[in-house]
Design brief:
This protein has about 110 residues and is mostly helical. It has 6 helices and no strands. It has helices spanning about 1-20, 25-35, 40-55, 55-70, 70-85, 90-95.
């Protein structure tokens, strides 16, 4: 059970990182993951806040960047809204998580 909980939390963390790539706020991320990955907002919020505690410097810089670049944040917000308006069939690839392959060196020996 603990292993599956850890795996679920890791998946949520990965999806939050994807939201950050799209310059989303925590609230936008909570909405997106709720709609597209069926993750309860309280779970997203809890994992986000833990990430903030563990990576305070990063999240401070992220918040400043979002505040300093309102045009980029606005553009990303518009992109997010368009993404949120996609029909479930168009966004189905976002609703199921499959981890990226891990490459740990060349295997062409």
């Amino acid at each position: 059970m603990a292993e599956s909980s850890a795996s679920y939390i890791h998946m949520v963390q990965h999806l939050i990182e994807e939201c950050i790539v799209f310059n989303m706020s925590m609230e936008e991320c909570m909405e997106a993951l709720s709609k597209h990955a069926n993750i309860k907002p309280v779970i997203t919020s809890t994992v986000w806040k833990e990430l903030e505690k563990e990576n305070k410097g990063f999240f401070d810089a992220y918040a400043k960047s979002r505040n300093r670049n309102p045009n980029e944040a606005s553009w990303c917000s518009q992109l997010h809204k368009k993404f949120m308006q996609l029909s479930p069939s168009e966004s189905s690839s976002s609703s199921s998580y499959s981890p990226s392959p891990s490459y740990e060196g060349d295997t062409d020996d």
